[in-house]
Amino acid sequence: MKSHSANRPEFSELLRVFARIGFLSFGGPAGQIALMHRELVDGREWVSEEQFLHALNFCHLLPGPEAQQLATWIGWKLHGMRGGLAAGLLFVLPGAFVILGLSVLYAYAAHLGWFAALFLGIKSAVLAVVAQALLRIAGRALNTGVKKGLALAAFIALFFFDLPFPLVVLGAGALGMGIAAVRPDLLAIRENGEVAPAAPRPWKQSIGAVCLWSVIWALPMAAVLVTLGTGHVLWQIGAFFSQLAVVTFGGAYAVLAYMAQQTVQGYGWLSAGEMADGLGLAETTPGPLIMVTQYVGFLAAFRAPAPFTPLVAGMIGAALTTWVTFAPCFLWIFAFAPWIERLENARRIRGGLAALTAAVVGVIANLSLWFLIHVLFSRVGDARIGPLRLYLPDWGSFDWRAGLLAALSAILIFRLKLNVIKVLAIAALGGLLLARLG
Q1: How crowded is residue 109: how many other Cβ atoms within 10 Å of its Cβ?
Q2: Are 361 and 157 in contact (CB under 8 A)?
Q3: Are 279 and 128 in contact (CB under 8 A)?
Q4: How far apart are CA 363 and CA 241, in angstroms?
C-alpha cells in the first residue's frame, strides 16, 4: 500500500516508535492523542496535519478507544495491515501487562488492611477525576440547546429509568442523523464545501477485512463454547464484553457506567467500590482507559475458577476480555479506513456523532452520580415507583474518610491543577494516613 505521508518509515522504525508511545501513553485519550501528534506529525512528519485530523474525526465515528484506533490507522496508512496491527498492539500491550500484574496483586491483597486503606484514597480520588472528565467533555460538546437537551435526556433515561445503555446512545445517534438531514444547524453541523472523492468504492477490501476479523474475534469464544459451554463465567465474560465493544461510542467514560452497573448489579462479579478501584488503576497505567475491562474480567474469572485454579482462571478471563475488547477495534479500522474521506463528508453521519457525543455527557453524569453514592455510602438500596428507579443510600453508612479524600482530590484537580497521577498518589497516601490515625 502506498503512503502519501511526507516521510514513510521503515517497518523496524515504526515498531520502535510505537513501542515508545505505548509505554508513555498516560493521561487518557487527550494526552495520548497529543503524544502521537507530537511524535508522528510534528517530530517525524509521517502523516500530515490534515491526515491526522481527518483520521481523528473518523475514529470518533467508531465504537472503541479513539486513541488506539488512531494509532492503528496511522500504522495502516504507513505499512498496510501489518503496520496497523503492530501500531495498535504496541499501543495496548504495555498497559495490558501492567493492569494484569496489578489485578493479580489486587485479588490476593485486597483483604489486607493497608491495601484497603490505599484503595480508599484511590476510589475517592476517582470521584474528582470523573467529575473533571464530565466538565471537560460537556464544555466541548454542548454548544447548542438541542445538544444540552440530549445530554439531560440521556442522564434521566439512565439514572432514573434504568433504560439500556445501547438503546440510549444508539437512539441519540439515530435522532442526530434525522436532525442533521433537515436542520444541521441545531447540532452545529456546517458544510465543509468539499466533494466526496470519485475513486472506486473499496467494497472488496472492506468485506475481506470484516470476514477475517470477525473470525479472529469469534475464535476464543468458539473455544470456550466447545470446552466449557454457555453456563461458564468465561462465556458470560466474553459475550458481555463483545457486546460492550460494539456500543463503546464516545470514549471509555461513556461506557463505564453501563459496564459498572451490569458487572456489579447484573452479574455480581465485583462491588461498586472494587469497580472504582479498577478505574483508579487504569488511570495510573499507560494505554486506553477501557483497559479497566481486563481487570473486571480477571476478577470475575478469579472468583469462579472451576475447573481451573483461581490464578489461571483469572489470567484466562483477562486475556479473553482484552481479546474481545480490542479485536473489534482492528475490524473497524481495517474495514472502514479506506472510506475515511467519504465519511468525513457525510452530513448525516456527522450529525449522528454530534448527537451521540452530547448524549455521552449525560452518560458520564450518570456514572459520576452512581460512583458518588456507592463510594461515599457503604449501604445503598433502591426503590421502584412504576418505571422510576431511585437510589436510597443509608445515611448512617456515610464514610467520612472517603468524603474528606474526595474533597481534597477535587481541590487538587480543580484549584491546584495537579495531574491525575499525582492526585491519585496523594489520595492513596491520605487513605493510609487516615487508617493509621483511626
Answers
A1: 13
A2: no
A3: no
A4: 18
What does the pLDDT profile of the chain (438 residues) look like in tens digits? Answer: 444 445 789 999 999 999 999 988 876 676 788 789 889 998 899 998 878 877 886 787 788 888 899 999 999 999 999 999 999 999 999 999 999 999 999 999 987 888 889 989 988 998 998 888 888 888 888 999 999 999 999 999 989 998 887 788 889 989 999 999 999 999 988 765 554 555 567 888 899 999 999 999 999 999 999 999 999 999 999 999 999 888 777 666 767 777 887 898 889 999 988 988 998 888 878 888 889 999 999 999 999 999 999 999 999 999 999 999 999 999 999 998 888 766 666 788 888 878 888 888 888 888 789 889 988 998 998 899 999 999 999 999 999 999 999 999 999 999 999 988 899 899 999 999 998 886
Give the separation between CA 347 and CA 370, rounded to whole angstroms. Answer: 35
Q: Which of 42, 399, 391, 337 shows the shortest CA–CA distance to 213?
A: 337
Query: What angle separates helix 66-109 from helix 292-302, to the nearest 10 degrees?
Result: 40
Length of the chain: 438
Q: Do residues 91 and 67 make contact, with C-beta atoms less than 8 angstroms apart? A: yes
- Dihedral of alpha carbons 321, 322, 323, 328, sign: positive
CA dihedral 242, 244, 247, 252 (to 10 degrees): -130
**382 phi and psi, to 5 degrees?**
-150, 160
Q: Which residues are registered as beta bridge partners of 382? A: 391
- Cα–Cα dist 129/418, whole Å: 11
Instruction: Provide CB contacts within 8 A for 390, sequence distance 6+.
Output: 160, 382, 383, 384
The three-class DSSP label of residue 180 is helix
Beta bridge partners of 282: none
pTM: predicted TM-score of the whole model, two decimal places: 0.81
Which of 312, 367, 306, 371 lies closest to 165, judged by CA? Answer: 367
- Listed in sequence order, the residues at least 6 apart from 296 whose beta carbon sits closer than 8 Å to its beta carbon are 259, 263, 269, 270, 275, 278, 321
The CA distance from 179 to 113, in Å, is 54
Gap between the Cα atoms of 349 and 401, Å rounded: 46
Q: Cell 438503546 appears where?
A: 167
